[in-house]
Write a structure and sequence with these properties.
By secondary structure, the chain is mostly helical. The protein has 8 helices and 2 strands; from the N terminus they run αααββααααα. α1 crosses α3, α6 crosses α8 and α7 packs antiparallel against α8.
């Protein structure tokens, strides 16, 4: 079964979620852990993980138009729901899952700590672990995803993440000002647009990098 906002709802579990959704999450937990362990220390981006889950090996996610928020949201939400649940499962074993816009990976933790960041991290965890959010209305999806993709990240990324994002936009070092970032981002998005020979995947990668840098300069 692939993730879809229009999937059938044959039955409901005791906690009020459709049975097919719980089953999908259980399957995703196995697949996501497998892919993250296979990726090792470098980890994978969200886009790379989605593509792996779309592959013939798993077939857990169907085709996605990354420029259509109604299609992207249920995939993004269910993936992060799975990642947060996996992180909680690994914690007793002294492991965790690093979650960032550009890198997802399994890491070792110190004394089973370091699993959450203050403030906004806890809010995100509560949101993604609430499966009822999977069925958000189209209007709410558009409002939320507009904020997400334009970079409304409240927790400032570290220098490693910011430098990686700058490299994605073609900078050798972090620019001195956000204005420089915006100018480069606009040019790259224009070139990467599907109507000009690019792809939606390229646009998503650029958006993710821009989101990190916007948070860095805020």
């Amino acid at each position: 079964m692939t993730t879809s906002p229009n999937s059938p709802e044959p039955s409901v579990t005791e906690i009020g979620h459709p049975e097919w959704l719980e089953q999908q999450v259980e399957h995703l937990l196995v697949a996501v852990e497998h892919e993250l362990r296979a990726a090792g220390a470098p980890g994978v981006s969200e886009l790379e993980l989605i593509k792996a889950l779309q592959s013939d090996h798993w077939r857990l996610i169907g085709p996605v138009n990354f420029l259509q928020t109604e299609q992207l949201y249920p995939v993004h939400f269910l993936l992060y729901h799975t990642l947060y649940r996996l992180r909680d499962q690994l914690q007793p074993e002294g492991e965790g899952v690093e979650l960032s816009p550009l890198r997802l990976r399994i890491v070792r933790t110190v004394n089973n700590a370091g699993q959450s960041m203050p403030g906004h991290e806890d809010e995100l965890r509560a949101f993604y672990l609430d499966l009822t959010q999977y069925f958000m209305s189209d209007s709410a999806i558009n409002a939320m995803m507009d904020n997400f993709w334009t970079g409304s990240i409240r927790t400032k990324p570290d220098n490693v993440a910011a430098s990686a994002a700058a490299g994605t936009l073609g900078f050798g070092n972090l620019p001195d000002s956000f204005i420089t970032v915006k100018q480069r981002f606009r040019k790259l998005v224009m070139k990467a647009h599907p109507d000009r020979g690019g792809s939606t995947e390229e646009v998503q990668i650029l958006n993710e990098a821009f989101s990190v840098l916007k948070a860095h300069y805020t």
